[in-house]
Structures are given as structure tokens and as C-alpha cells.
Amino acid sequence: MPRWATSRSLSWPHPSLGRPPRPSRHPCAPPPSGSAALLRPRSARGSSICLCVPSAPGEMSNVSSYALRMARLSAQIFGDVVRPTDSKSMKVVKLFSEQPLAKREEVYNWYPPHNTYYALMKKLRYFGLYRDEHQDFKEEMRRMKKLRGKEKPKKGEGKRALKKK
């Protein structure tokens, strides 16, 4: 069943006669008694929607070339799509208009700055303003091993190096 054959268009005589006739007035055009504004007011998302850019060649008759150029220029200025675009293409446009993942603050600030904290605590410990008990314990164990003669040999003084001599 074709897309145009909905419950609204069941009064059309027969599918073999083709599509039903288009409405006489452009669907985006302002009401006949209203002003002839080219653009609708900006929507809540901040993008303006063009009233005069035709979506089919037959709709060109009620739009002047000046109005068409002004609508396209307005779309360019406000960062909208200049020509009429289907929903699949608009999805791509939306995707590219967003900020890349790597530049989003919630992504690159996901983890706390551990390296900065570590360097700061190391300096504070050196000045005596912070006590790191685990580091104190490790240093004490290293000192005790050295007193017992169990410390690690310096480079070039291990068992393998002594065998060659």
C-alpha cells in the first residue's frame, strides 16, 4: 500500500489514478490573512525553520527567487541546513554538529587527576606537612634490609657480573 493511501485519503477514487492532488497552499506558508514572514519564530532548540524553501519542483510557483535566496542565507547564518533534507540526512547533520566525544568535559574529566594528587602529596610529605604511613613503612623496611646486608645489589655488581670476573 502506498504511503499516501492513508485513512485521510480513502476518498480518492482509485489507486490506479495516481497520487491525490497536492493542496493549493504551501504547507509551510503563513495563513492567508497573516503577514508574509519568511521565517517562523526560532524554535525552543534555537534553530529557525524556513517557510519558503520548496520541497518539490511544483511548489516553486508561489516563492520568489529573492525569498528563496533570503531563506537560504538565513539558514546559512543560523547554521541550519540550507536545502530541504530528509530525516536520514538530518541525523548525519545532527551527528556532525555535536561536539566530538574527546572534547566533551564529562568525558575527559571522567577520572580524577591522580598524577597531580600524587605529586602534591609527595611534595607535602617532603616538607613534613603530610604523613604517608605506607611510604614510611617501605622506607623503614629498605633501611632494615640494608643493615642486614640484604639490599639489592647495584647494577653490574650482581651474581652474573661476578661470575665473569
From TrEMBL:
Keyword Transmembrane helix assigned to the entry: answer is no
Q: Where is the composition biased (Basic residues)?
A: 143-153
Task: Locate the compositionally biased regions of type Polar residues.
Answer: 1-10
Which keywords annotate this record? Answer: Mitochondrion, Ribonucleoprotein, Ribosomal protein
The places in or outside the cell where this protein is found are: Mitochondrion
Which Pfam families does this entry report, sorted A to Z?
A: MRP-S33
Looking at the keywords, is Mitochondrion present? yes
- Write out the biased-composition intervals (Basic and acidic residues): 154-165
Q: Name one GO cellular component term.
A: ribonucleoprotein complex
Sequence segments annotated as region (Disordered): 1-36, 141-165
The similarity annotation says: Belongs to the mitochondrion-specific ribosomal protein mS33 family.
According to UniProt, the name of this protein is Small ribosomal subunit protein mS33
Source organism:
Cyanoderma ruficeps
